[in-house]
Design a protein that fits this description.
By secondary structure, the protein is mainly alpha-helical. It has one domain: Arc Repressor Mutant, subunit A, CATH 1.10.10.10. 57% of the residues lie in helices and 6% in strands. It has six helices and two strands. Strands 1-2 form a two-stranded antiparallel ribbon. α2 crosses α3 and α4 crosses α5. The protein is elongated. This is Rrf2 family transcriptional regulator. Pfam families: Rrf2. GO terms for molecular function: DNA-binding transcription factor activity. InterPro entries: Tscrpt_reg_Rrf2, WH-like_DNA-bd_sf, WH_DNA-bd_sf.
Length: 145
């Protein structure tokens, strides 16, 4: 099963947007992520609808942040992306009448629900400003080598 990397990719883009002077076009973002501009426009539209980015038309237009990084959490972006499933593993429904399958599914459901609650809580505690500060620390340390 393929991983859904939209959250990490959009966090990456948003940090770049904060550091970039001016708007970033869908084409520039697509080249950065090695994807299609249509995919970027579709994904950014969800972030725009949630109020985290805005789009500008015309020459010099593109995507810009609509609020400062310290006002956006990782959870905010996760929710704006449509709350994608956070785990690739899950229960099966091959034979719902099978008592073994029921027992396995119940155990997995409980564990996954608990793990997801922890992850969601943590995503709500981290802002994009925290990520940018971590980048700054790493960049500064690299310069000191």
């Amino acid at each position: 099963m393929r991983q859904d990397s939209r959250l990490s990719r959009m966090l990456h883009v948003l940090i770049h947007m904060d550091r970039h002077d001016g708007a970033l076009t869908s084409e520039v973002i697509a080249a950065m992520l090695n994807t299609n501009p249509v995919v970027i426009r579709r994904t950014m539209a969800g972030l725009r609808d949630a109020g985290y980015v805005r789009s500008e038309k015309g020459h010099g237009g593109g995507w810009r942040l609509a609020r400062p990084l310290d006002g956006i959490t990782l959870l905010d972006i996760h929710l704006a992306l449509g709350e994608p499933t956070v785990f690739a593993i899950g229960p099966t429904d091959d034979d719902p009448s099978c008592l073994v399958e029921q027992a396995v599914n119940a155990a997995l459901d409980d564990a996954l629900r608990e793990a997801e609650a922890v992850l969601i809580r943590r995503l709500g505690m981290v802002t994009l400003a925290d990520l940018a500060a971590d980048f700054d620390r790493r960049f500064t340390a690299l310069g000191k080598l």
